[in-house]
Amino acid sequence: MTTWIDAWQPADGADRARALFTERFDAEPNGVWSAPGRVNLIGEHTDYNGGLCLPFALPHRTYVAVRPVDSDRIRLISAQEEGIREVDLSTVAPGTVQGWPSYVAGVAWALRQAGHAVRGFDIAVDSCVPYGSGLSSSAALECAVAVALDELFDLGLAATDQGRTTLTAVCVRAENEIAGANTGGMDQAVSLRGRAGHALELDCLDDSVRHVPFDLTGHDLALLVIDTRAEHSHAGGEYAARRAECEQAATLLQVRTLREITPDGLGDALAGLARLTGPEGDGSAAAEVLVRRVRHVVTEIARVQEFVELLAADRVDEVGPAMDASHASLRDDYQVSCRELDLAVDTARDAGALGARMTGGGFGGSAIALVRTGDVESVAEAVAAAFAGAELRAPTFLVATPEGPAA
Ligand code: GLA
What we know:
Strand order of the largest sheet: 1-13-10-12-11
Number of strands: 13
Number of helices: 11
Structural class: alpha+beta
Strand content: 15-25%
Radius of gyration: 21 Å
CATH architecture of the largest domain: 2-Layer Sandwich
CATH class of the largest domain: Alpha Beta
Order of helices and strands: EHEEEEEHEHHHEEEHHHHHEEHE
Bound molecules: alpha-D-galactopyranose
């Protein structure tokens, strides 16, 4: 028995958010906006190192119905909970808003910080992006709010890619400073700048993008997403620790970001790091740990380039080994996988997947597997059976296709 998480049709999602707004606020919203979650094909934990990544936007979206008000009051409701939450926009600052409203209020706050005249609003939220699955439900919420406020307060940013790059930075600031998660920006970039039918090659050094055609159906392939439903309660602390280790390594190697270390220079860089005797007791990581982290980041950036070259040459059925190598590197060198992710990936491969890897930050969340269209069900069934056999919580599944950005 396998459970599939289907995306809503956009008109259905919009109707749900509008109906929720009307029912609970007893008024009509000015409109409904939405933004997608994402999967990352390859390029994990590279964004905050000035590297490359290759995500695409899912058909699963978060919908927001919004009406501006003539004050600084934000009132929020969600289909997932009872009651109305309230935030005073003029008092928002790091640490003042808890829980999911911090993503919404954070975007309004960050827009104001950037000099935009944003006021309060009423907002109703509903979503089919699985929550806590490593598929960026938080970025979907931020980006839906960003395009809503952009239109309601006449900012004109969502109309151009340059403006969307500005909105991306706004959403990242909201997440880093108001929601308190020091994430890198890949999720917001693809939610705002992705393109249907394409993966987004994102260069995090200068925020430039390349839209890479990503057609699986034409090759009789599908991308199976396996949500392991593993709790990842330590994810925040571990994520911050990895980021700090990368910064520490960059400082020791005297580079601005690890992007500056090329595959050719990797041997020398690792030898240099290995010679360092990590100062103990001052919270810095041992040299051996830094060697692993740097090796992951540098080889992972090279794997993104390899993956993109294969796509450009219409050889998508050959990307499996790069996916497998990415997973091994994340598991062994970056050490962000977990038992559930490894089981999902190994089982999918044994059941015929061409390649498989964890996607997103790790420590739980989702894995992806590239499979022949005819094998989607049997691979999912094999993974579900393996989880049952290991007495793990039942995973859920979806088939991911690249869809459009926030609108
Ligand atoms: C999370 C973060 C991203 C990125 C990935 C790992 O999804 O939000 O910024 O760092 O982890 O690639």
